[in-house]
Amino acid sequence: MGRLGVWVHNADCCDFIVGGDGTAVSIKNMSQQEIIGIQRELNVTHITGGKLAKIINKNGHLEDMPIRSVDGRILTGIDVIGKNGEYISVGGPAKGSTPEKLAETLRKLQILKSEAEKNGTKAMVYYERGNSEKFQRLIEESKKNSW
């Protein structure tokens, strides 16, 4: 799958992605985009010395650790918890693919930053490099806002 992760196939069970930190994630019933996302997140755990911030939902699927509003609505999620407790968002070029996605991503990053500050840590982002002008705007906004 990548230099920081290994794809493992167990004929008796299922396929897994094993990250550089030894975390194994089942990819059964995951879309290709979900698999790419998990691989990115596992790579970030290796880079940061952190861990995946995932929960298993009632259907047995992995979900990001949620950040909730006062009334319990999920506002966004945390992809990785850094070695020092940082809240890390991980993504790729799709995060800035349309004006709507860019606005949604920036809103979620602001929520992540606010929640991190409230809990005495910092927010960080790791993006897979993209080559579009829209994605470059996302990078510039992230730098400007110190995510």
TrEMBL record:
Protein's name in the database: Uncharacterized protein
Organism: Moraxella caprae
Lineage, top ranks: Bacteria, Pseudomonadati, Pseudomonadota, Gammaproteobacteria, Moraxellales
